[in-house]
Amino acid sequence: MGDVLTQNSIKINGSASTKEEAIAEANELLLAAGAVTNDYLASMLERETSVSTYMGNYLAIPHGTNEGKDAILASALSFVRYSKPIDWDGQEVRFVVGIAGKEGGHLDILSKIALIFSDDDEVQKLLKAPSDEAVYALLSEVNED
């Protein structure tokens, strides 16, 4: 299996100002990676209406519904950081990690992301990382089997 996170799927200067725009921005990176079809965004937005994907520590991890799994071509992650917090149902979000998991692969990816973001020191490093490369280095363990 290839890496679920590539440097091309990282954007440290997100431009969105709303939750919906941030989900679309995360989806754009998944689309560019060839991991999802155009139908995946609707599935991600649908998921958000039923359950918030806010996880704590400035992190939201939007992903599609089970019904949207046909729009997933390969497991992948996208990572967008915002200098100005996004209002996510009343919570401040600075990191939006889009997830596309093929054949249940998202559960493993989710647990790795949750582990990184449960460490306040790692969150601070991600907030301060000066480049896409630096973020990639901090998150590279999500690619390890």
End-to-end distance, in Å?
9 Å
The main β sheet shows up as: 5 strands, mixed
Q: Report helical residue fraction.
A: 25-40%
Give me the side-by-side strand order of the main sheet: 1-4-5-3-2
Number of E-type strands: 5
CATH superfamily: Mannitol-specific EII, Chain A
Q: What's the pLDDT, averaged over the residues?
A: 93
CATH architecture descriptor: 3-Layer(aba) Sandwich
In the CATH hierarchy, the third-tier topology is known as Mannitol-specific EII, Chain A
User: Which structural class do the helices and strands define?
Assistant: alpha/beta
Give the strand content. 15-25%
Write a compact overview of the structure shown.
It comes from Subtercola boreus. The chain is α/β, with parallel strands linked by helices.
Give structural notes.
This protein has 145 residues and is of the alpha/beta class. The protein has a single domain (7-139), classed as Mannitol-specific EII, Chain A (3-Layer(aba) Sandwich), CATH 3.40.930. It is 37% helix and 21% strand. The chain has a five-stranded mixed β-sheet. Helix 1 packs antiparallel against helix 2 (40-50). The protein is globular. 39% of the residues are buried. The model has no long low-confidence stretch (mean pLDDT 93).
